[in-house]
Request: fold
Amino acid sequence: MKAYLIDPAQRTVTAVDVDDGLQGVRRLIGFDSVDADEIDANGDRVYFDEACFIRQTPGAGRFKLDSLAPVAGRAVVVGSEAGGTVLREPVLTLEALGARVLFL
Reply:
């Protein structure tokens, strides 16, 4: 399944493959404790380390997506259905997402 990886340390937004759902998302983020926020009406969600500011990982970088609270560390954008319980490819394009991300 296609997804998008936001890496503020590298200041990049790239397309990636996630082959095993939420476990794959966790692996890309680098932590098991993930949280998500819906980012559009199509069900696209951004997944991130829920303890990203408590951990204070050196060199992780930070970013902001639209008006959501800033995130420290990597995040993954995927589509979802059924209130976020089923993951699918995002509707949002890579270019559109990149225009909405501000690296801090």
